[in-house]
């Protein structure tokens, strides 16, 4: 308490050998052991601790409740993050199942677009619903590359790899050209 | 036969009977968002309260609580025993709050930890003058982050040394020492109210 704080961190014993923490626990619960009632060290410590103990014992004015929207914000963040973790079941004769993470499917799609000259695919997301896969990707194109033709080639490459190699029907492929590749 | 009770589940729109928490945790761990959301509703007040008590700022506490809950979702696969979800989540909350407190303390230009005069500084202190709870608040602000966290978790949340030790990355003995030093500081600060 008012004693020098020890540096080894271990000694929170009062000179009488009673533990400070045990004393605090008892004070907070409003009970006193025989020793604590009689011991001058414990009584002195209890007097010093009195203001602190009184705040701790006094219930807070109102219960602390989480701010509105906290759970919604967390769930939104989680769903956004989960997008890259979901797995797609492949149609296979079995027995057993084969799953591919959406992120792996997206990586495959991104990779397939490398065959198209003058196109650099950045983000690529894959979603599956009743109609099949929706692939959405962002691409940069080299200056001078005809964009419509290049997009068609990307679509063709992506569709081929997903439908032929994974046998996942592709419903649509959305491409956004996000910028140009500077010519060097 | 207990097996026959499953027949009651036939009506698909019937609301599910209360599910034990361990089942919710198992579901959440296997990717069931609805189960995780139920756990969030159950624990959001506790997590926020821990963060608020450590940080003493509602905005920071909200940030810490949100980070803690997202971290819990990410780490859920590592949780071996679903029965200890509550204490596990609370430890994450304590850790996030301590980290934020440390980051905030590092960016504060004035080291008010060793300056008892900062009690009188600012309009907030004035408004709280004469208020014991306010004085405690001010005194807590003067404690180093780890000491403050140890004290809050012990005295306000009632945690044991071992649990606190995991949050602050120290031994239980060191935690005991920190709580002792924190008490000494607070007792001194509250001396006028004796």
Keywords:
heterodimer; A: 184 residues; alpha+beta; Alpha-Beta Plaits; three-stranded mixed β-sheet; two-stranded antiparallel sheet; elongated; disordered N terminus; B: 194 residues; mainly alpha; Rna Polymerase Sigma Factor, Chain: A; Arc Repressor Mutant, subunit A
Please give a quick description of this structure:
Chain B: One of its GO terms (biological process) is DNA-templated transcription initiation. Chain B: Residues 1-20 are annotated as: Disordered. Chain A has 184 residues and is of the alpha+beta class.
Could you please describe the fold and organization of this structure?
The complex is a heterodimer of chains A (184) and B (194). With 184 residues, chain A is of the alpha+beta class. Among the domains of chain A are: 20-57, no CATH class; 100-181, Alpha-Beta Plaits (2-Layer Sandwich), CATH 3.30.70. In chain A, 41% of the residues lie in helices and 22% in strands. Chain A has helices spanning 20-28, 34-38, 40-57, 70-82, 102-112, 147-165; strands at 87-89, 99-101, 119-129, 132-142, 170-181. In chain A, the strands form two sheets. In chain A, strands 3-4-5 form a three-stranded mixed β-sheet, with helices on one face. In chain A, strands 1-2 form a two-stranded antiparallel ribbon. In chain A, β4 (132-142), α6 and β5 (170-181) form a beta-alpha-beta unit. In chain A, α1 crosses α3 (40-57) and α5 (102-112) crosses α6. Chain B has 194 residues and is an all-alpha fold. Chain B has two domains: 19-107, Orthogonal Bundle (Rna Polymerase Sigma Factor, Chain: A), CATH 1.10.1740; 114-194, Orthogonal Bundle (Arc Repressor Mutant, subunit A). Chain B is 65% helix and 0% strand. Chain B has helices at residues 21-29, 33-55, 58-75, 85-107, 122-127, 132-141, 145-156, 161-168, 172-189. Chain B starts with 20 loop residues before the first helix and ends in a 5-residue tail after the last helix. Residues 1-12 and 110-129 of chain B have low confidence and may be disordered. The interface between A and B is large, with 39 and 43 residues. Chain A: It comes from Nocardiopsis flavescens. Chain A: This is Asp23/Gls24 family envelope stress response protein. Chain B: This is RNA polymerase sigma-70 factor, ECF subfamily. Chain B: Residues 1-20 are annotated as: Disordered. Chain B: Keywords: DNA-binding, Sigma factor, Transcription, Transcription regulation.
């Amino acid at each position: 308490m008012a004693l020098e704080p020890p540096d080894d961190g271990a000694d929170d014993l009062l000179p009488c050998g009673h533990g400070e923490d045990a004393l605090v626990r008892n004070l907070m619960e409003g009970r006193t052991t025989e020793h604590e009632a009689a011991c001058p060290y414990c009584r002195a410590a209890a007097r010093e601790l009195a203001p602190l103990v009184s705040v701790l014992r006094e219930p807070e004015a109102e219960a602390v409740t989480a701010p509105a929207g906290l759970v919604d914000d967390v769930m939104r963040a989680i769903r956004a993050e989960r997008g890259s973790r979901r797995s797609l079941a492949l149609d296979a004769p079995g027995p057993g199942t084969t799953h591919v993470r959406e992120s792996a499917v997206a990586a495959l799609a991104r990779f397939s677009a490398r065959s198209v000259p003058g196109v650099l695919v950045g983000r690529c997301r894959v979603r599956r619903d009743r109609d099949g896969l929706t692939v959405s990707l962002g691409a940069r194109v080299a200056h001078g590359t005809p964009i419509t033709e290049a997009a068609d080639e990307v679509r063709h490459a992506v569709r081929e790899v997903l439908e032929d190699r994974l046998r996942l029907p592709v419903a649509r492929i959305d491409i956004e050209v996000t910028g140009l590749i500077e010519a060097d | 036969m207990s097996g026959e009770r499953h027949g009651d589940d036939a009506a698909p729109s019937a609301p599910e009977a209360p599910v034990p928490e361990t089942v919710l945790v198992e579901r959440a761990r296997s990717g069931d968002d609805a189960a995780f959301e139920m756990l969030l509703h159950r624990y959001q007040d506790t997590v926020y309260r821990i963060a608020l008590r450590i940080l003493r700022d509602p905005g920071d506490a909200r940030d810490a609580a949100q980070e803690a809950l997202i971290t819990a979702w990410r780490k859920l696969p590592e949780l071996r025993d679903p029965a200890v979800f509550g204490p596990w989540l609370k430890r994450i909350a304590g850790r996030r709050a301590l980290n934020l407190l440390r980051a905030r303390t590092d960016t504060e230009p004035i080291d008010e930890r060793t300056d008892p005069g900062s009690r009188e500084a600012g309009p907030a202190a004035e408004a709280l003058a004469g208020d014991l709870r306010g004085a405690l608040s001010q005194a807590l602000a003067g404690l180093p982050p780890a000491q403050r966290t140890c004290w809050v978790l012990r005295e306000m949340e009632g945690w044991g040394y071992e649990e606190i030790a995991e949050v602050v990355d120290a031994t239980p003995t060191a935690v005991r020492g920190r709580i002792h030093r924190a008490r000494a500081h607070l007792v001194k600060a509250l001396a006028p109210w004796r």
